[in-house]
Every structure is written in structure tokens, then in C-alpha cells.
């Protein structure tokens, strides 16, 4: 690694002016990605570090190295591109999150997630915007009112990519589903707010505008979700009907990947919330499509999507780290370094306050609706949720670039200050908050660790420990289910049919969330699964050894290849 | 699909001037890729069609559609970019080819492959270059001498991507390894010729220049191969030493993918033959690295690499098809349409003659060195090899663009004629030759079909039917071996150890190619495998159920997830 990197850097110095630049940049990035993976692996046992911080630090170090080698000129190859981020890096991450999310956990907390994601983000937006107007205007920074509001919209959104890095779905499933779910839902809120800031006159807020905003949010949320669900169902239907597995498992994987990406891009095209779309597409694909494909495709999709997401995450942090050192914007700011630091501090404080302003009241509200004490979010959990969602990462940075740079340059003083402050906030929050979150979770929620020892799939809520007795609980997490069908093959498929049939259970009826789930299950079994496939509803598993042998000779060949 | 496409096209018309263009282009491409996969699947049973022709035709139709919608203005989003092709689309295809190639078949024919790839391409180059000088100069086309030679270099190279589409490794392994191997090796030849055309005075060829060319070729071939081998061994060593599988199979897949790509980019950076590098990297990875990873990673890498390659292939043909309709270059040519057609015809004829000029003599030479009649390339096979390598595809097109367009535009008449002629040759050869190859192979080599019925892994050479008796033959094809270790898990790994030890066999000693293979096997077992892993030399398979249970609790959790 060291060797590759060294020679690449040498070459870069020589070639940076030729059209080889893109080759050099890609080579450097790929070499750094390899280094991040290896170092991240070596630091795996560490209590504090995580992959994102490693990548960020390596990125910053490389940035320093490039600065030194290029003699302070800073190379163009490191300019942050929102397109690269939103079009190529974000989709695999969010899709994979939807694909691997524990669905039951997610939908059980759906009302709380919506509360945090929609109302919470709005509260945070208001606090940050008006805080910024109040505090920054005193510091000789003249932004338009719309820019202050944009600042609010940028910093109100939790970075779902950071959350994924810090929280572990298996260790803290409730926290994960709440904070990550909020991150997904508030993307829709952010889009609405961004549009509102640009199109509506927000200086005179009245009931009509509030209703309009609410209507916009509902419209966006629903259309984005439907688009994702339709794409997911389409993939399930196509794969079930056309039976790709007959001669090619690669086609199945390709069509899943492409349809998911298509849903993201269509959503982007129609100015919907692409994150929401691809997230729900992932959920639907894991519920239906994944069960319609061959066993090899199942293993492949599970790991290939996770790998793509993993690489994209590291790439983002590396990229943010390297871009942070772009000398041009710091030069503009250098004359007013003190202001820039103060602005960063103020923004950081506003983020802290803005998040606190909705987590605690809304958790209280959410607790009111829950009867069982096990379902309630206690104070320790509230603090963890507040803290774990504080990080601001690449999403904030991309939005800041979108707002404050018109042509990729940052010559206006105010804009340069805003960009550098955003970078400071991103670096600080990712590194410092990121480092502290892991130990904090262990300190505040020690129970999770004990529960993990019991190898419960839902270790935090004691509620869930009693529930497996009700049966059918193991259907919850896709992850449990993956391995099952891989190891047992046909057998587990068959036994899955039995599990799908809801067992009459008076205790389940009593819980209202259970009832919704019950009717959904009924509808799913009666209509959705026969049409779109899914566990236990695919006539036979193509590619399974028992099924294959009855086919004629091209399949024989394929069998030879695969077994 | 139809719906998505329709709305996208509509949108495009409206949005084509905004910065949404890239989003529109990507959405359109992804939708078309999905359509290609579905249609390709439906046409699978067809005797004539293959995926590349489907994609090409869909691409051309879409191009026509865009032309009609945009009112003949032709949209910029379809301009062919060599960077996109060489940096993103080609690496996964060639890497996957190396990863899945039947190694023993490939190395058994290595001398013939080198003969075809190096000497053959040179002969073809000379024939096409001088033919073009002789014929085109009579047609009022004034190109510099260097441009004629470049034309020779462009059209001398077989398109390995096209070959992959038309020939099937399992049906016709000898043909596949010869024609595809030639395609890989002649990339090095092409690079040498291209550099020679630009740097050397080729009008006065003497022994010194010939030796220099030969030296260049050797240097390039050896350094490129070494770079690929080193990258492959590095991945094997890192994964074996650091034992990624302990907590993450995704890291293994990521590091394999990234190191392979890194080798390609480094090779590109140092102006080596990147295709050769990544091909050998794939071979080494399938021989060592692939055996060091967890079972899930094996399934994932096999199918994920194949999927990426599959999507990239379709993308290329779609892209070529859509680009063919770019109105700008046709407008320049339209005044001299007759000339353009004649030039295309002449080039096509020269390609046919140039290929015939080396296949038949070199096959004769190759046959002289082989004692066993089974190893010889008979006349029918020679014709098939000649025909199957006639296609010129995206590689030729990318090289033509590199040579004949300086700024992406084609205003000079000669350049425009050359580009449009290249497109015509590419479309014609891919569609017509592609359509005919499948039936031709079945007509000329009917034996292959019968042998497939016997489910032999090497159906054409009767030689190989007797060989399995020698034992150890099943180690040949990676594909056979995949399923084995997947279905039998630990068991087949254990039995694999036994197979690795070369059995003393007097018959094997008698065959000289066997002897080389024997010493290689000895060296491999004594030195390479203990260091770099490989089948039977990994202490235990991480991720296998028997191994996992002795670990402590984080692995327990992962086990839960994966099983």
C-alpha cells in the first residue's frame, strides 16, 4: 500500500496538468480506500474508533500531503462535487440500509420516527434559523434572510450516513431504528423546507402557509414512498414471472440493483425525496424480491449491496477529509479566522440546542401514547438519541456547497465563511461526537451489552424478550432469516410457510400495533405474496439442488458450474 | 419499463437545457439497461440473437427516438467518452474474464495465444495499414501516414468484449480461450503499436526498429503481467494474514474489488497494458485469494463480479448504439455519403483479409509443434477462430475517437469520414457477424453439442475426455470448484488437500505441457500456497459453521446474522 501510494503521489506531481489527472485521482482514491479498509480492520477492536473517523483522518492527512507536495497550490482534483455524492455515493448506502433494516422494529416505531423526522426537524430548523439570525447578524455577517433559513435547513437534518457508522443495528436496534429512521424521513422534510425557503415568503408565516407546508410534506412523503414501493414490487413481479434464475443468477442481481437505482434517479428527476424512495424500495425488495431469487443470488445481493454501501461510506468520509484542506476557501477566510471559528462554534451550539428542543418534548409525547412501560423511551435513551443524531456529515456539506457556491468557487467572504464553518462543524462533530458515541452508548445503556450476551436479536427493549413466546417473532429481522434459508435451503423455505400463517393469539389482539401488523399480515398473505412472491410463496426455489435435476440439459450444465 | 421510459423522454425534452441533464441521462440509461436485461432474457432461447445485439439495436432505436423528439438537434448527453469506457466499463469485464477463465485450458494453449496475440496482430496491422494506404488514397482521402498506421492498429485488435458475448466458455472452451486470450494479449500489442506509430519513424523499417518493437512488446507484456500478479498476490496475502473474515465478509469482497481496480489504474497510469494487468490479476485472485475468503464471500465475488461485468457489457453496446446516431458527424459526412460507405466496405474487407492472413499460417505453425492430433487446430476450427474474432466493437470505437477527434467534435471531413466508417464497421460487424457466429459454430463444430450432452467440462477437444482419467483434472475449471465448496463446505475443502498433491503418473510426464504444469504445481504447493493461501492451504475456513462456534461473543452475533 505504502509503495503504491508513494509512487502515485510522485506521479501526481508530474502529471497533474495533463489529462491524466482523473486517472491519478482515481488511483489515489482507490489506494486510499484500500488503506482505510486495512487500517479500519486493524482498529476494529478499538472502543473509540470507527471506520468513518479513520477515513476522515486519512483523508485530512492525504490532503496535507498533497498541499505540501504541490507547494500550497492545492490541486483541483479534490473539489467536492455534489453530483458525485448525490448521484453515485448516497444511493447504495441508503438502499442497503433499507434492504438490511429490521423491518418489524422499524414499523413498530413508525409513529415516533415520523414525529422525530417531520415535526422534530421542523422544530430544529426553526431553532437553528432564528438562532443564526439572532447571533450571526451581530457578527458583521450579512446574509439574506433566505440564506439564514437555508442554514437552518442544512443543519437541521441528521446525517443518516454518520448514524450508520456509529450505531449498530444488532447492538442497539431501538436506537438505530429511531435515529436512522428519523434521518431517512427528515430527508423529505429537508426537501420541503428547501423548496419552501426558495419559493414561499416565510417572513409572514400564517395558517395557510403552515398548511401548505404540511400538505407539501404529505405529498412528498407519500409520492416518494409509493415510487419506491412500486419499483420494489416491479422487481419482485418481473423476477417471479420471468424466472430469471432459470439460466442466470447474474441477471437477477443486476435487475435488482438497476431497478433500485432507477427508483432513486426517477425520484431525483421528479424532485421527490430520493432517499425516502430508495429506502422503501430496499424494504420492499428484501420482503418480496429477495425471496424470489436463487440461493446464490440471495447471498450475493446481501453481501454485494453491503459491500457497495461500505465502500461508498468510506469514500464519502475520505472525500470530505481530503476536501477540507482545499486551500482556496481557507485563503479567503484567513483574514477573518476569528469570525469563522466563532461562527462554527455558534452553529455547533445551535445544532445541540435545536436537537434537544425536539428530542425531549417529542419523546415525552411519544411516551404518552404508549401504554406498556417497556415501549417508552426513558431519559437515558433520550440522551443517547439526542447525542447520536448530532453528527453532521457529507449531506450537510453537500447542501452547504449547493447553497453557498455558485460556480464551485468561494470568493465572496460570507460564502467562504459559511463553507469553512460547515467543514469545521462536520469535522468536529464527526470526529468528536463520533468518538464519544460508542462509549456513551455503552455507559448509558449497559443493559444492551448484557442482552447481547444472551444473543437476543432485540436486546434493548425488554418487551421484545417476552414477545418471542408469542411466536412468529423471528420473522422480524431479515438478517436472521438470511442465514436460515441459506443453510437449510429448501427445508427452511418450507417451514417458512407455516410461520407465515398468523396464529390466533388473544394477547396479540390486545396490543393495537399488533393489530395493524395482524391485518397487514393477512393482506400480505392473501393478496401480495401470491402476486409478488416472498417467503414461502415461490412455488420452488430455482437453483436448489432438488429442483434442478428434473430440468433438461442447459440447466445440467449450469448445475455443473454452480455445484 | 414502458411507462418510465416514456415519462423520462418527455421530461428530457423539457429539462435538457437545465443542469438536470446528467440525471436524465443516467435515468434513461438505467431504464434502458433494465429493458435490455428483460428483453435479452426473453430472447435467451433464440438461436441467433445475443445480449450485445439486443442492446445495440435498443440503443440505435433510442437514438432515433431522441433524434425525433429533439427535432433533429441531437442531444449532447450521448457523446461517446473514452474515459467512461476505459476507466469504468472495461476493467470489470476483463477482470471478470480473468477471474472466471478456465485456467488450465488457458495456459495449455498459451503459446498459441501468444502467437496469435503478438505476431498475428502485427501481421493484421501490416495488412490493414498498407491496404488502407493503397486503397483509400485513391479515393480522395488525405490522411497522414501516421493516421493510416493508426487505422491499422485500431482495426487489427480483436474486441475481447464482443468475443465474450458470442463464444461460450462451457460450450467451446478451446475457441474461447484462443480467441479471447488473443484479445487480451493483443491489447499489449496494440499499445506497443500505438506508441510506435506516434514515436518511431515507421516509414523506414529495419532490423533495429523491429528489434526495438519486439523489446517494447516484451517489456510491456512482462511488466503488465507482473503488476497484475503482484496485485493479486497482495490481496491473497493481506486477506490471509489479516483474516478479514473474522468479522466482516464485506471487507474481503471490497478489498478484492478495490485491489483489482487499483492494478488496472496503476497500469493505466504507467502507460502499461491495463487489460493484461487486470486479466492476470483476476487469474491470480481466483487461484489464491478466492480460497482464502469466507464461503459467503466466494459466492458473492463470483456472482457480483459476473453481474458487474454483465451490466458493463450491456452498457457498452447500448452506448455504442445510441452514440451511432449522433447527428453532428453524419451531417459533415452527408455530402460524401458514397465515399463513407466505400471506406467502410474497404475497412471491413481489410479486417477480413488481415485476420485470414495470420490465422491460417499461424495455426499451421502451431500445429507443427503439437504431436498429438487431438491438440491440433483443424481447418474447421481455424475458420471458426477467424470468424469469431472478426467483430470490432467498443474498443475500436474508443480508439478511433481518441485518434480522430481532438476536441470531441468532428468537423474535419476526413476525420468525420473515419469516425462514421468506424461506426458503420462496428455496427455491421457486431450485428451481422454476431448473428452468424452462433449458428456457424454449431454448424462447423457439431461435435461440441453432442459432447455437452455428455456433460463434459471440456467438450471440444476429445483429448480432454481421456484426461480426467489422469486425475486432478477437475481442478481445471474454477467454475466446477465453486459449487463444490459451497455445497459441501468444509468437507470439500478437506478433500481438496488431497487433490492438490500431484499424483505420480508416468503418462503425464510424457506430455511436455504436462511437465511444465507439473513443475508449476510443485512450486505452487511448496512455496506459493503456504504463503498466499489457496485451495487446501488455508488453516480453516472462516465463517464455516464448525469453526465459528469456538469463538467468543461478537462472532456469535455475526453467526446469528449469517445463519
TrEMBL record, chains A, B:
Provide the Cation/H+ exchanger transmembrane domain boundaries: 32-442
Q: Does the keyword Metal-binding apply?
A: no
Q: Where in the cell is it found?
A: Membrane
Q: Which UniProt keywords apply?
A: Ion transport, Membrane, Potassium, Potassium transport, Sodium, Sodium transport, Transmembrane, Transmembrane helix, Transport
Q: Which residues cross the membrane?
A: 20-43, 55-72, 84-101, 113-136, 217-239, 273-291, 303-321, 341-365, 385-404, 416-436
Q: Which InterPro entries match?
A: Cation/H_exchanger_CPA1 (IPR018422), Cation/H_exchanger_TM (IPR006153), NaH_exchanger (IPR004709)
* Reactions catalysed according to its record: Na(+)(in) + H(+)(out) = Na(+)(out) + H(+)(in); K(+)(in) + H(+)(out) = K(+)(out) + H(+)(in)
**How does the entry describe its membrane topology?**
Multi-pass membrane protein
Q: Name one GO cellular component term.
A: plasma membrane
A biological process (GO) of this protein is: sodium ion import across plasma membrane
The molecular function terms in GO held by this entry are:
potassium:proton antiporter activity; sodium:proton antiporter activity
Question: Any idea what this protein is called?
Answer: Cation/H+ exchanger transmembrane domain-containing protein
Amino acid at each position: 500500500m505504502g509503495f503504491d501510494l508513494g509512487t502515485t503521489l510522485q506521479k501526481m506531481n508530474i502529471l497533474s496538468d495533463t489529462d491524466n489527472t482523473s486517472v491519478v485521482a482515481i488511483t489515489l482514491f482507490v489506494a486510499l480506500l484500500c488503506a482505510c479498509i486495512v487500517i479500519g480492520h486493524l482498529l476494529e477492536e478499538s472502543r473509540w474508533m470507527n471506520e468513518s473517523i479513520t477515513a476522515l483522518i486519512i483523508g485530512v492527512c492525504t490532503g496535507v500531503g498533497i498541499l505540501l507536495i504541490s507547494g500550497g497550490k492545492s490541486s483541483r482534483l479534490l473539489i467536492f462535487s455534489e453530483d458525485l455524492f448525490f448521484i453515485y455515493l448516497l444511493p447504495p448506502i441508503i438502499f442497503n440500509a433499507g434492504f438490511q433494516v429490521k423491518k418489524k422494529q422499524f414499523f413498530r416505531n413508525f409513529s415516533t420516527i415520523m414525529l422525530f423526522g417531520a415535526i422534530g426537524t421542523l422544530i430544529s430548523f426553526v431553532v437553528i434559523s432564528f438562532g443564526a439570525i439572532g447571533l450571526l447578524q451581530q457578527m458583521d455577517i450579512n446574509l439574506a434572510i433566505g440564506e439564514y433559513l437555508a442554514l437552518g435547513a442544512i443543519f437541521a437534518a441528521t446525517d443518516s450516513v454518520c448514524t450508520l457508522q456509529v450505531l449498530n443495528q444488532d447492538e442497539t436496534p431501538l436506537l438505530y431504528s429511531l435515529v436512522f429512521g428519523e434521518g431517512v424521513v427528515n430527508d423529505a422534510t429537508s426537501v420541503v423546507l428547501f423548496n419552501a425557503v426558495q419559493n414561499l415568503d416565510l417572513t409572514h408565516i400564517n395558517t395557510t402557509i403552515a398548511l401548505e407546508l404540511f400538505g407539501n410534506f404529505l405529498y412528498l412523503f407519500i409520492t416518494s414512498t409509493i415510487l419506491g414501493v412500486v419499483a420494489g414490487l416491479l422487481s419482485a413481479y418481473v423476477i417471479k414471472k420471468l424466472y430469471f434464475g432459470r439460466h442466470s443468477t447474474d441477471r437477477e442481481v443486476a435487475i435488482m440493483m438497476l431497478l433500485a437505482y432507477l427508483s432513486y434517479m426517477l425520484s431525483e428527476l421528479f424532485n421527490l425525496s430520493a432517499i425516502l424512495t430508495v429506502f422503501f424500495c430496499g424494504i420492499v425488495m428484501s420482503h418480496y424480491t429477495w425471496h424470489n431469487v436463487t440461493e446464490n443470488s440471495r447471498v450475493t445481493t446481501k453481501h454485494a449491496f453491503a459491500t457497495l454501501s461500505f465502500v461508498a461510506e468510506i469514500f464519502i468520509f475520505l472525500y470530505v477529509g481530503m476536501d477540507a484542506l482545499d486551500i482556496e476557501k481557507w485563503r479567503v477566510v484567513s483574514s477573518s479566522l476569528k469570525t469563522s471559528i466563532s461562527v462554527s462554534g455558534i452553529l455547533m451550539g445551535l445544532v445541540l440546542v435545536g436537537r434537544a428542543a425536539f428530542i425531549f418534548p417529542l419523546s415525552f409525547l411519544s411516551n404518552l401514547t404508549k401504554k406498556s412501560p417497556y415501549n417508552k423511551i426513558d431519559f437515558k435513551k433520550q440522551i443517547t438519541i439526542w447525542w447520536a443524531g448530532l453528527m453532521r456529515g457529507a449531506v450537510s456539506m453537500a447542501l452547504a456547497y449547493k447553497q453557498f457556491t455558485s460556480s464551485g468557487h468561494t470568493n465572496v467572504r460570507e460564502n467562504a465563511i459559511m463553507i469553512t464553518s460547515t467543514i469545521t462543524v462536520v469535522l468536529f462533530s464527526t470526529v468528536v461526537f463520533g468518538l464519544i458515541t460508542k462509549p456513551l452508548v455503552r455507559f448509558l445503556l449497559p443493559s444492551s451489552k448484557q442482552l447481547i450476551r444472551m444473543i437476543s436479536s432485540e436486546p434493548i427493549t425488554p418487551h421484545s424478550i417476552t414477545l418471542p413466546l408469542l411466536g412468529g417473532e423471528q420473522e422480524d429481522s431479515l438478517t436472521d432469516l438470511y442465514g436460515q434459508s441459506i443453510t437449510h435451503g429448501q427445508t427452511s423455505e418450507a417451514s417458512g410457510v407455516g410461520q407465515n400463517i398468523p396464529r390466533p393469539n388473544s394477547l396479540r389482539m390486545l396490543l393495537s400495533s399488533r393489530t395493524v401488523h395482524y391485518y397487514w399480515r393477512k393482506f400480505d398473505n392473501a393478496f401480495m405474496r401470491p402476486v409478488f412472491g416472498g417467503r414461502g410463496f415461490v412455488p420452488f426455489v430455482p437453483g436448489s439442488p432438488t429442483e434442478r435435476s428434473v430440468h433438461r440439459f442447459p440447466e445440467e450444465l449450469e448445475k455443473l458450474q454452480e455445484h
